[in-house]
Specification:
alpha+beta; Thiol Ester Dehydrase, Chain A; 3 helices; about 20% helix; HotDog_dom_sf; Acyl dehydratase
């Protein structure tokens, strides 16, 4: 993080959208760099001929682990230094290829006070430039209450009582 505070539980409303995170347009270089960093040498991420002819895919594929990273970045950017992304779950339902611009989004679906902190539930996802939802999911974050202590690091769910 950059040392900034994040969302405050008291300011969050059910139905509220959190700030989006836009990545792209993706290039084969982006995909290959991520594959190399993760040591994921599956050929569908860098070998166009293999991906299209052998696996019958439309192009090389954006890595699932990269999509996971983007979803966590979305939540981490929103909760800032004082909150915690507690639980995240999503499904890979769509393929993304070079040329795609992907937007991570989140919408508050629930909130509850839990001791000194607040717990916020969200629907989250990753859409392409055509609006196709390829990575739907849910998340639960813990946020500080106004005037309350920051969420401890590392976060222990037992503190929620």
């Amino acid at each position: 993080m950059d040392g900034t505070a994040g969302a405050i539980f008291d300011d969050v409303e059910i139905g509220q959208d959190i700030p989006t995170l836009v990545k792209g347009p993706m290039t084969t270089a982006h995909i290959m760099r991520w594959s190399a960093a993760m040591e994921n040498w599956h050929r569908i991420h860098y070998d166009w001929k293999y991906a299209t002819e052998h696996d019958k895919l439309p192009d090389v594929m954006v890595n699932g682990s990269w999509k996971q990273h983007v979803m966590i970045q979305l939540l981490s950017d929103w909760v800032g230094d004082t909150g915690w992304a507690w639980k995240v779950g999503f499904q890979f339902r769509g393929m993304n290829v070079p040329g795609d611009t992907l937007t991570a989004w989140g919408r508050v679906t629930g909130k509850q006070e839990r001791g000194a902190w607040g717990v916020v539930d969200l629907d989250i996802g990753l859409r392409d430039q055509k609006g196709n939802e390829g990575t739907p999911g849910t998340a639960r974050v813990v946020l500080p209450r106004r005037g309350g202590p920051p969420v401890p690091y590392p976060f222990d769910p037992a503190v929620l009582g």
